[in-house]
Amino acid sequence: MSSLDEVGEREGWRCWLCDEPVDPEASVNAARGPSVDSALAPKGKKAAMGRERLAHRACNTGKGKVVPVVPWSPDLFVVDPAPIVATVDRLSRKGGQEVVGRCPSRSDADEAAVWLVDRLSRFAPDLAVQAKVEPGGGQFLLVLRAV
Questions:
Q1: How far apart are CA 82 and CA 110, in angstroms?
Q2: What Å distances lie between residue 137 and 38, 70, 134, CA to CA?
């Protein structure tokens, strides 16, 4: 098992679940304090992350031993966003591409695409992805592709 400082340095002191900064000086018993999450998948499932990750104590405790829910940014206008963890798992196993959301305007979709690639670079650093925006049916589809 790695030390908290080793994991924190590797993760840039950001919580892998909520993507907020983690204070390395905070008590490990504090809700926003640092903890190490082993990021193991539920029994019988392949671990998508497969390594120790940095998390806030509250985020790690709230997740427990279930697959985490990683939220989309509330600042984005995305309709029917796909669950991030399930999408990462499928793209990691199968490759290919998936439609992960719909946006009412091109600018909303472009903003969501940039955010998603940035977020996944920290959430699943071993998965290389590209996001593209495709018009369709009076809206704009956000498509994520494993590269």
A1: 16
A2: 42, 28, 10
Burial (0-12, 13-18, 19+ Cβ within 10 Å), 70:
buried
Residue range 30-89, pLDDT digits in tens: 999 999 987 554 444 444 445 789 999 999 998 877 777 888 999 999 999 999 999 999
Q: What is the band of 100 on the pLDDT scale with cuts at 50, 70, 90?
A: very high
Dihedral (CA of 131, 135, 141, 147) sign: negative
pLDDT at residue 64 in the model: 78
Best CA proximity match to 110, nearest among 145, 146, 85, 134: 134
Question: Per the structure block, which two tokens stand in for 99?
Answer: 């439609």
Cβ burial, residue 94 (10 Å; 0-12/13-18/19+)? exposed
C-alpha 3, offset from chain centre: 22
Q: Which residue has the tokens 């992960």?
A: 100
Q: Which residues pair with 129 in a beta bridge?
A: 146
Model pLDDT, residue 65: 74
Which residue is listed with tokens 């920290």? 122
Residue 101 neighbours by CB distance under 10 Å:
26
